[in-house]
């Protein structure tokens, strides 16, 4: 008997996972990226500890968003756990569409979750989704080209320094462009970058009365600066480049600097894929001295839709998948470089993880983003590179098309901003703001 008890305790290192319960089958909707696929491969560990089994519904990002949004709005009950992000969580939490995660056991150590992640996945201090991995954005730059330009990248540069460096690093005859930035239209493409950049210039989407702010000097400065910089120091066809296109350019050695997701650091430093893997440095996203940096914040997180019949088992799964022990499990099987990044303070205090060249700058970038206080002047919304209201995705996609057209030279900055102001005002009025 003593042996069995000891074995059981050993299998239950994650406290509370072994609470006696009927074995359930959980249906989980998730996104088809590498970290989530890896989690599916490790699910037997969860089943061994709890007796619960898992059925996965794995979908491409846009399809996932559509399916889980339709299901939760209609109270369809197809899923016991959903993979959602920082955009949906505060909206759905406020509408009581999600189960609060305010009773996870002490051993889970909610306080260990990075404050920026906890803030972006909470409503009024209550956590509604647990982060599986997190990211911000930062500068990735060519150390050799920076040296050749006679410059040294500060850890926390200004936009003025970045613009100057980009122009000095540009060598168009040899297809080297000082800076690569997102220009492709989309709320998660160019508008993620431009909203975060706008924050650093003192711009904001709305004032405290929900009036659109695209007719302000701050937005004119943001958009003019961005377009001038890409015209002078960016690659041709920048208005059609998104994350993947710029990643490819950087890996081919054609970008002096690239400001984008911290998760890209492992790709640009991987010698199997990147021709410049041993010549990459990292720095915080730039600022203009106003106290806000131009970096965003995102997490893919696990949440429980309200009304599930399997809430207790669903909480056990979330506790397992987002725990410190899960990170150790991945490290033991796949190595520290493949552990889901950006969620827990303890990961960044781990001396083994500290050896990863981009670990510290990723953490510093995440910590410098504040979704509850994202702008220089006060705003009525949560979110760094998005506004956490249901209407935002549709509005920002249209605004992104206008800004992309301005970058392509099809209209002026003033024309693009006037259209953005009008369409945003019309959509917000129709929505009842």
Can you describe what's shown?
By secondary structure, this protein is α/β, with parallel strands linked by helices. It folds into two domains: 22-135 and 297-359, 3-Layer(aba) Sandwich (D-Maltodextrin-Binding Protein, domain 2), CATH 3.40.190; 137-296 and 378-430, Periplasmic binding protein-like II (D-Maltodextrin-Binding Protein, domain 2, 3-Layer(aba) Sandwich), CATH 3.40.190. Helices cover 42% and strands 14% of the residues. The chain contains 19 helices and ten strands. It has helices at 2-11, 34-41, 43-50, 61-73, 88-94, 115-120, 143-148, 159-169, 190-200, 217-233, 243-251, 265-268, 311-321, 324-334, 345-348, 351-354, 359-367, 392-407, 413-430; strands at residues 25-31, 53-59, 81-85, 122-123, 126-127, 130-142, 177-180, 255-261, 280-284, 297-303. Strands 1, 2, 3, 6, 7, 8, 9 and 10 form an eight-stranded mixed beta sheet that branches. It has a two-stranded antiparallel ribbon with strand order 4-5. A hairpin with a 2-residue loop joins strand 4 (122-123) and strand 5 (126-127). Helix 18 (392-407) packs antiparallel against helix 19 (413-430). Mean pLDDT is 92; it is low at 1-11.
